[in-house]
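[09:14] KT: can someone run the structure on this one? pasting the chain below
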Amino acid sequence: MDLPLPAALTTSLVPDLPPLHVARPERQTVPLVFASPHSGAHYTAGFLADSRLDPTALRRSEDSFVDELFAAAPGFGAPLLTATFPRVFCDVNREPWELDPGMFDGPLPAWVNSASPRVGAGLGTIARIVASGEPVYRNKLAFADAEARIRQFWQPYHAALAALIAETRASFGYCLLIDCHSMPAHPAHGVSPADFVLGDAHGTACAPRATRLVEETLGGLGYRVRRNDPYAGGYVTRHYGRPREGVHALQIEIARSLYMNEARVERAPGMQALTRDLTRLVATLAKADWSVLR
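[09:31] RB: done, structure tokens below
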């Protein structure tokens, strides 16, 4: 039986929808770039037809509404990059060619990375499963499909991100990338789970001052903050975070329980308060002296 699509999906079946959106300030006044790679909710009709899961099950893999939580960034002089496509369709926080050979109807090229831990977990560039562990697809895929997604979605997103970082570094001499994510509730997180997890690849992707300022600001607002456990940063953090070259990357994971109903993929009453607090965080970062990042 076909299930009705939520409004957020129904209105997004636009074949020529751009794969990304950049909200720019009138003039960039701070060496900051914000990015939300996993909040996209625009699903193509073909993908929905190929999936064995209902739309809500697919949407639980999103970092839903994270782009809204950081929407104030351009008002403080920093650009905000957002992917419009969902991570379950193409995950830009992976290498471009992390693919599971078991998902495809033929052999993959030898240069494909089919042995990474992410692929083994079913969460490569093209995910085999959703967060709950259920398989995504009814049938095996053609490699041409994966190649098209990577070239039409992954590559434009990273071209835009690299351009924003290069522009920022050219203007200020350095850049701090804040890569914005959300994390689901999980029994392994214990009885007192973190509200935020900051990932700086164990100090290798970001100056300690930046990580510490974010940690202290969020802690001062009453949140439980943890570093690098269990999320130390994905491909984006590790690939772009090159402090010796003046580029710093910090991943922020936000507990979804703070602002949304995970089961129904809906905004919860806490959304307004969290947005206000994250706007305070953006303001604090915008006022900081980042010359130490040179």
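[09:33] KT: thanks! The two ends are 58 Å apart (CA to CA).
[09:34] RB: yep, looked fine to me
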